[in-house]
Specification:
Helix content is 29%, strand content 21%. With 469 residues, the chain is an alpha+beta fold.
Length: 469
């Protein structure tokens, strides 16, 4: 019998498998995707949010625990477990040496991401390189890996894991780590979670899946039915406004359009609907998917002028370009008169001070609803650009309630040998909102904890077996 079974193939699962193996346990990892698509959403990531009290290699200045906590508190609006959140924050300060040992390299922030140079450590080669490094290390350490191995159900007994069923095979293990992701690729479940809006639309029908197509939420659903304690709102997720031309699945980072804070966002009626300059983009980019989802047709339009060019990471898909604003409105299919009135009102309301996109500057609007709090400059310099955006779901927040030992709970009681990590428990820390890189912080912290605890649980069972013999 295997000591530790890890179900999932992304960052959290790999961290768990590596830690369990390092602790001396035999480990089998089941990845639902084929080898070429291994890694879940982790293959699309690029950085890890890290606490640090002084400059460290690729990280500048300091990013202390309390500031990290306040940043998280701000985006979640308090819908978070402080104990578990602070555990993640502290773990983020100590994991990079271990990551390097397993082949992960880091690089300084590139142009367009310099605002993250203090808070986030970037992976050399991005998430795909990180995933590949972990798989190489796991194979070298003797972790058994199976691809195209989806688990459809578990055997549980009194809150304890007994076995998993994968393609008709029963796989028993002394302990198990669940790290199989959310349900973002399950369109029916997204429909159920979001329901119909007041226009009778199913918003979820217009969502693009920024992450992996393999996260169907099968094991979350199974655990709900098995009586596991659940946490999170099924409609909450890491939801980004991405290019409307992005692929249905696996668009990843490159589908993002990062110029929202430099211009205005309009709905299909040609009206603004939220403060584009509320806060720094890394703290606010993940609210825009939900905001766009709440608009008719689940579509929004980012409008900038040439003054914004060069101040954000260029998107992969070029936007619509025009020499006049009426021409741009027509190209985007927006009502020209309303579009022009909206932009005119915005331009007239701008109070331009010292523009600086790297700080919360004093360029703002007055007498305009909604306001633009920072970086407000008239849209008046041709050529003009427009990007159609749709909600892009990266991962969902509904998951399993856990504790600082990463144990799955049943009726408030922690399981002795069933643990959870990554997106399947992220809702404990992320009740809503997001800030760049924190998903990888959660997955790394709880993956490492879950792997350690699973190995210890397997060892205890082995000791009990020997004692009974």
């Amino acid at each position: 019998m295997i000591d530790v079974l890890v179900i999932g193939g992304g960052n959290a699962a790999l961290c768990a498998a590596l830690m369990a193996r390092e602790a001396g346990a035999s480990v089998l990892l089941l990845e639902a995707a084929p080898r070429e698509w291994r890694g879940g959403n982790s293959q699309h990531t690029r950085n890890l949010r890290c606490m640090h009290d002084a400059p460290q290699d690729v990280l500048v200045d300091a990013y202390p625990e309390e500031e990290f906590w306040q940043d998280l508190l701000k985006v979640t609006k308090g819908v978070t477990d402080e104990k578990l959140a602070r555990l993640v924050i502290r773990e983020s300060s100590t994991c990079r040496g271990w990551m390097r040992k397993h082949g992960v390299n880091f690089q300084p922030s590139l142009s367009g991401t310099l605002h993250l140079s203090r808070t986030n450590a970037f992976f050399m080669g991005g998430g795909k390189a990180l995933v590949n490094a972990y798989y190489r290390s796991a194979e070298e350490l003797g972790v058994q890996i199976r691809y195209e191995a989806p688990v459809d159900r578990l055997e549980l007994e009194g809150g304890r894991f007994v076995a998993a069923h994968c393609k008709g095979e029963r796989i028993a293990a002394k302990a198990c780590v669940l790290a199989a992701g959310g349900f973002e690729s399950n369109r029916e479940w997204l429909r159920e979670a979001w329901g119909r809006n007041e226009l009778g639309e199913w918003p979820a029908d217009n969502f693009l899946i920024r992450g992996t197509r393999f996260n169907q939420g099968v094991l979350i659903k199974y655990m709900m039915e098995a009586g596991a304690d659940i946490i999170g709102d099924p409609s909450q997720s890491h939801c980004v406004a991405i290019d409307a031309r992005a692929p249905l699945y696996d668009g990843g980072i490159c589908t993002r359009v990062d110029c929202v804070s430099l211009g205005v966002m309009l709905n299909q009626a040609g009206l603004r609907f939220y403060d584009e300059g509320e806060d720094f983009w890394p703290k606010r980019y993940a609210i825009w998917g939900r905001l766009v989802a709440q608009q008719a047709g689940q579509i929004g339009y980012c409008i900038i002028d040439s003054k914004a060019i060069g101040r954000f990471m260029p998107p992969v898909f070029p936007g619509e370009k025009a020499d006049t604003l009426p021409e741009l409105a027509a190209k985007l299919g927006l009502p020209v008169a309303t579009f022009m009135q909206t932009v005119s009102d915005f331009n007239a309301a701008c109070r331009v001070g010292d523009f600086d996109h790297t700080v919360l500057d004093d360029c703002h609007t007055e007498g305009l609803a909604p306001p633009k709090t920072h970086w407000a400059r008239p849209i008046d310099t041709a050529p003009f650009y427009g990007y159609a955006l749709r909600p892009g779901i990266t991962f969902t927040y509904l998951g399993l309630k856990t504790n600082d030992q990463a144990a799955v709970h049943f009726g408030g009681e922690p399981s002795g040998n069933l643990f959870v990590a990554g997106e399947m428990m992220a809702g404990n820390v992320l009740g809503q909102g997001y800030t760049a890189g924190v998903g990888m912080s959660i997955g790394t912290a709880f993956g490492r904890i879950a792997g350690t605890q699973a190995a210890a649980a397997a060892l205890k069972q082995e000791e009990r077996i020997h004692a009974a013999a």
